[in-house]
Specification:
The protein has helices at residues 5-36, 40-54, 68-84, 86-97, 103-106, 109-142, 153-170, 173-182, 188-193, 195-209, 214-238, 251-277. It is mostly helical and 278 residues long. It has a domain at 5-171. It is flat and about 110 Å long. The N and C termini lie far apart (72 Å).
Length: 278
């Protein structure tokens, strides 16, 4: 007996709730471990290193709010816990939607989870180790001598999270292209035709989400364009045409074909005999 639509909808909601709870529990467990070692303070110091190295000697960041020195390092720890638990979170999302996919689409699950995690972390790492150093030194070089920069730690956290999200999502371009091509939404030829539009869009997005300096804009736009080419290459590999179907081995079909051939041969022999008799 088929399940009623209302029951099916409720069961999906229950499953979604359970998978969200599992994801939150995973983040909480990882965050608890990070609070024990190395601790929120050391994690925030590591995050703030690119900015503090660009500040004048002896200058430190400031905390304006009363609870800011406690809350900001805790938020940073939560962000790190989320990234560490990202493979498990992506798996929960995939397990929720997988029952509605075809078999050939389900085979993409594990590769997409691994590649998405690796590319997102790669985008954040690129932002931290390359972009931050260049941007902060570039900005510090324009600061007047009469000003002593002392950034607020909460404003710095907001800036860092925005940049991390921008670079992490930007590095997911190859995964997005592969999924679109594999689902038949777009073809590789169309992606090639849209290359020039994507380049313009990449520079527009970089100008919007990054600080108003050339260094950070180029640091986001150029990798996006390169990753677009990588996505086209990967999409071409996964969209190879399937081999032609093998000949049928159904006995009934073979018998029917044999009977047709014998009938045609009999007709040909009869016509040949008539011609000789005439």
């Amino acid at each position: 007996m088929s399940e009623a639509p209302e029951d099916s909808f409720i069961s999906h909601l229950v499953e979604l709730r359970d998978r969200l709870l599992r994801s939150l529990i995973a983040i909480a467990v990882v965050m608890g471990g990070l609070c024990l070692y190395p601790g929120p303070g050391m994690i925030y110091d590591f995050l703030a290193a690119p900015l503090t190295s660009a500040l004048p000697e002896g200058t430190k960041m400031v905390a304006i709010g009363v609870v800011t020195p406690f809350m900001v390092p805790l938020k940073v720890t939560g962000m790190v816990a989320f990234v560490a638990a990202l493979p498990f979170i992506l798996y929960q999302a995939w397990a929720f939607i997988a029952p509605g996919l075809y078999a050939h689409e389900k085979r993409l699950g594990i590769p997409l989870i691994i590649s998405s995690t690796v590319l997102f972390v790669a985008g954040m790492s690129f932002c931290y180790y390359f972009v931050f150093g260049q941007v902060f030194h570039f900005i510090a070089s324009f600061a007047p001598k009469s000003i002593t920069p002392a950034p607020d730690i909460e404003a710095y956290l907001s800036f860092v999270m925005t940049m991390f999200m921008a670079f992490g999502i930007a590095f997911e371009v190859p995964v997005a292209l592969v999924v679109l091509v594999k689902l038949g939404v777009v073809s590789v030829e169309k992606l090639k035709e849209w290359r020039s539009y994507f380049i313009v869009g990449a520079f527009v997005v970089a100008a919007v989400v990054t600080p108003p300096d050339v260094v950070s804009q180029l640091a986001l736009a150029v990798p996006m364009c390169l990753l677009y080419e990588l996505g086209i290459l990967a999409a071409r590999l996964v969209s190879r045409p399937a081999p032609p179907p093998a000949a049928t081995t159904d006995p009934a079909v073979d018998a029917e074909n044999s009977a047709k051939m014998e009938s045609e041969l009999d007709k040909a022999e009869a016509e040949f005999g008539n011609l000789r008799g005439n």
